[in-house]
Amino acid sequence: MDIKVIAGDITRIETGAVIVNYFEGMERLDGDIAAVDKALAGAISQLISQGEIKGKLNEVTIVHSLGRLPPARVVVAGLGKQHELSQDRVRGVVAETCRFLRQKGVASIATVAQGAGVAGITPELAAQAVTEGALLGIYSFRRHITKEAEYGEINQLAIVIADEANLSSLVAGYRKGRILAEAANLARDMANEPANCMTPTHMAEMAAKLAETCGLELNVLEPEQMREQGMGALLGVAQGSRQPPKFITLRYKGTDSTGIDVALVGKGVTFDSGGISIKPSEGMGEMKGDMAGGAAVMAAISAIAQLKPRLNVMAIIPATENLLGENALKPGDILTALDGKTIEIISTDAEGRLILADALAYAKKLGARFMIDVATLTGACRVALGDICSGAFSNNQELVDKVIAAGAEAGELIWQMPMYDRYKEQNKSEVADIKNTGGKYGGAITAAQFLAEFVGDTPWVHLDIAGTSLSEKEQNYLVKGATGVPVRTLINLVLSFAR
Ligand code: BES
Ligand code: MN
Ligand code: ZN
Predict the structure, then answer these.
(1) Counting CB atoms within 10 angstroms of each CB, which of 134, 174, 247, 282 has the fewest?
(2) Which whole number is the average pLDDT over 313-341?
């Protein structure tokens, strides 16, 4: 979609549809909606007085202009109560409106900087929200569908501002919104891809492409090198599959120092069958998305490379399948991780924490100052928080507060879970240093406590996205399938570090 920001009169734009806003309980019309209403000879105010337009959040009303305006349609999009407005509500309204117009066959749209000047939303933040809402909302994954879609695509969006003085801040907001939304859509594409296409090898190829287009430094360890490094946990998971595992790193250098400020570690299980501890067949196909964490950190670092903050970031993605076969890992086996710790395997389905153990130990060995890992790690987290919030687990309150704030800015909700030492008890093994499952209860927390063992004192946050990585339905700016969570959070976080 081609998006541009222009200064001009919204009633004179040549386009397929123009979107203006109405707030619930608004006494009289002013600004853009008043200008459009006037051009329509009071059609909007009439619908309001008749009670057809109420301004409820996500309410969409279409008014045909019948030649009174250049565009054939005017859409009045409800923004809800003025004092409740947020950037995230703007994203949602724009997404819903764009999908509505796409279904009507509209190919080009003009709108205002929705929400600007209300509830602390600056023109810049409004332009960013409109851009993100449009790009995220009309996302679709049709790569494997050969028949034509029922509707065409919206290929043009103009964000129109009356006052030329605000143009540069609108452009800045639009640019940032575009980078964030495209990164989230990239992560969605990767996670939506079936496992026969998105193999560890393909993930490494995607990383190579990103390295080239965004100027990142790429390194991919092959099984031979993993063995040299001592990545016994990752190799243990990978040994049941014919697909070779890949240990992928992408490095962004924003300063002259050689150190790593932030390590972003993402679980890259391209298919999780459960291994010998096999999963029930119902819904197993969902496990093609078990690399959503890895996709998120790859997409985030590619956006970071475009935004160029002054700090150094490394994305680390241990990528493998978790399958079963004659060579597969077995319950009872004992593996040795990169840092020398031994792990008793209770369930081969608790594979995410195994590959992350090596990846976190690797980041620690490189001396990363902060570590964030992202993983579709536990069904328990999904049970606890549903698909609304990702779970955050941390050894450092200041860092987790920053992550939660970065999430709020993105509209990606995060809830902090407890990390009391007493949960560690459940991970104790009688035959190794630690075991890979902590029993039936508190499963999201015992998984996080397992990871904590490989992090040491480095400030670290673990984000469990098992519940939030997929959306079951179209809602606001999410569509059915991969959500791209928490790509925009990670980008915001790194930008906040650089500030
Ligand atoms: N990838 C799964 C977790 C998951 C479940 C993600 C549902 C998304 C939706 C993970 O590898 C897993 O299988 N976890 C087990 C851990 C258990 C064996 C301790 C689980 O949650 O059942
Ligand atoms: Mn599993
Ligand atoms: Zn898994």
Answers:
(1) 282
(2) 98
